[in-house]
Amino acid sequence: MQKGENSMVSLKDISAACGVSIATVSKALNHHTDISEETRANVLRVANEMGYYPNSAAKALKTNRTHNIGVLFVDNAQSGLTHDFFAYILNSFKESAEARGYDLTFINSNKTRPNKMSYLAHAKYRGFDGVCIACVNFYDPEVIELVRSDIPIVTIDHMFNNRTSILSDNVKGMRDLLTYVYGKGHRRIAYIHGEENSAVTHSRLSSFFRTADELGLTIPDDYIKETPYRSTKETEQRTAELLDLPEPPTCILYPDDFSAFGGMNAITERGLSVPGDVSIAGYDGIRIARHIEPQLTTIRQDTQRMGREAANELIELIEHPKTTLVKQIIVEGSVYEGGTVKDIRA
User: pTM here?
Assistant: First the structure.
């Protein structure tokens, strides 16, 4: 059934082979839902057997879309896609976007962009149908310029009033985590949080203090420390400072699971054990934290759903701009109990 190498397979060829109209073939190839699944599957099978490959340039001219989505991901810690939380989200985003016929292109940092283009200029230069923004300084003037443009945008873990955003429920997550630790009998609870200029940090920190107040906990100023996210070196230093206090905490909360490893190092270097002497808890639920002993107590975030929601919402904004509502989708996580918080109620 396959045509020769120099012969281009057309929709008309597929139509004749399947015994359906050209319009039906087009709908099947573009994943329209107003034809039967059986017809769509048959058309896709025949098209594949005939060696049909849509011409992306011709498709762009016809639909006024390139089927290319830009991803703006600028990690100040330079951990890139080794940043477990965002790596899992973006992998889910990629799978969902590709399933709907879209390719992804990362937007370069200003050090490598052609002619040092702004993010907006680069997005237009590449002809992106839309842009997903994750793990950036959302207060960067270039990011704000991009958000204010007419390009469809979805943000992850940051909210703009006029843009769809996919948000981890950091308020509930921190409330659940602190309540869990409190339920294990801990009253001297310290919190090493991420950078103050992060919206995620603000949500978690506010929830921490509010929940502590509701539980009747007094949190000394010395129990609150700041460190960059994913910095094991700095969390190790902050943990050492907490252990040096006249009345050190019995439990320490960390900004993320990776940072918690630095805290564990500081504790064990003192000849102390986790959780025998000091309890700890992280945040995110990265896989590696479930492969250490004891397993890390943490908030496990639903990265699979966050990536899927981000991709689907962005594509809806691209394909149905007049009828798709701007919304904020909040995705809940759950406490993963692990084994690093000791029950001291006895």
Answer: 0.76
